[in-house]
Structures are given as C-alpha cells and as structure tokens.
Amino acid sequence: MENELIKLQIFDESDFNQLIAAIPDARFLLQWSGPKYTYPLDVSQLKDTLSKTNGEQPSFKVLKAIHSNTLETVGHIQLMNINYSAASCVLGRVLIFPEFRGKGFGKAMVKLAVKNAFENIGLYEITLNVFDFNETAIGIYRSIAFIDYEFKKDVRNFLNESWNVIKMKLNKDQWLYRGKC
C-alpha cells in the first residue's frame, strides 16, 4: 500500500534548510504557499508558522514526510487554519522535494494528512486551493475524493501571468464512503 511508503512526522527547525533550499524562485514560492510567505523564504517566516503549532488546540500542524525505508525526508505538508469548533481545516503547502517526485510520495503524503485530520484531530471537512495549471496536484486530490466546489478567476498575479484557483473540499463521510481512499 502506498501509505507504507512514508510516515508523517512533526516538521521542526532542523528541517528549515532543506525546505528553504527547495524553493528556487519567487514564482515557485507563490505557487506553493500563496501570498503568506515572501521570497526568499527564510527562517523567520518558518519560525512564525511553527509558532502556530503550539498549545492544546494549535491552529496549524506542520508535517514532513519520511521515506519508510531510507528515513529521508521526501516532502512537506501543512494542515492550516484548524477550526476545532467547526471541525475543519485547510490543507496546503504540499511539496515533494524534486528528487522524489513521480514516485507516489505526493499521493501517499496527502492521504496520510487527510487520515490524520479526520482520525487523530477529529475534523470533519478539509478544504484546499490549487492553481488550475497544477494538473498533477489536481489529479492527486481528485483521486483521494476531493471535489471541486468553486473556480475563481484571476486570483493571483505573477509578473505578466494571471492565475486561477480551484477550491476543493473533502468531508469525512465522502472519505469513509470511498474506502479511506
């Protein structure tokens, strides 16, 4: 099973340099993180994000994916804006490091993050935003049972480009019905 490829662990300061090194330019950073981070990504911005992971009900879970056999870090993912009373969160900042792409790690990582949100945190709904040109990510999300619920045109601009966003969601009932995908 693909989930056995990896396990999720807490992302911490020892992981900063690898993540920073994986962000080659401002366009990639905007695609990966939206406008919350500014280029170049740095330790200060990541520390600010980690500060949201503290407490009994943190608003963020910042995770890394570890290859089960080699113990190498293959990627990064976040559960953001966790709202415990509404039982919801936003899935985002999903990144598989370049040398590990095309090997099933992305889908496995997203599936484990979804499982964590529903089974361990007790959430009911996960939403996400993905740029419409990111066909690989869209395919992964749809294969896990995320459904499109809104299309927003010209949401982000980068230089002379205008980017559209697909908003997607998955609730626990859909996930269970589809066999935990």
Features:
single chain; 181 residues; alpha+beta; seven-stranded mixed beta sheet; 6 helices; globular
Strand order of the largest sheet: 1-2-3-4-5-7-6
Order of helices and strands: EHHHEEEHEHEEH
Low-confidence stretches: none
Question: How many distinct beta strands?
Answer: 7
Q: How far do the termini sit from each other?
A: 11 Å
Computed over alpha carbons, the radius of gyration is 16 Å
Q: Give the rounded overall mean pLDDT.
A: 96
The computed structural class is: alpha+beta
What fraction, in percent, of the residue positions are helical? 25-40%
> Which strand-content bin applies to the residues?
25-35%
Judging from the principal axes of the Cα atoms, what is the shape?
Answer: globular
Number of H/I helices: 6
Largest sheet, if any?
Answer: 7 strands, mixed
Task: Walk me through the structure.
It is a single chain. With 181 residues, the protein is an alpha+beta fold. 29% of the residues lie in helices and 34% in strands. The protein has helices at 16-21, 26-33, 43-50, 105-120, 135-143, 172-177; strands spanning 6-10, 61-67, 73-83, 88-96, 125-131, 147-158, 161-171. The protein has a 7-stranded mixed β-sheet with strand order 1-2-3-4-5-7-6, with helices on both faces. A hairpin with a 2-residue loop joins β6 (147-158) and β7.
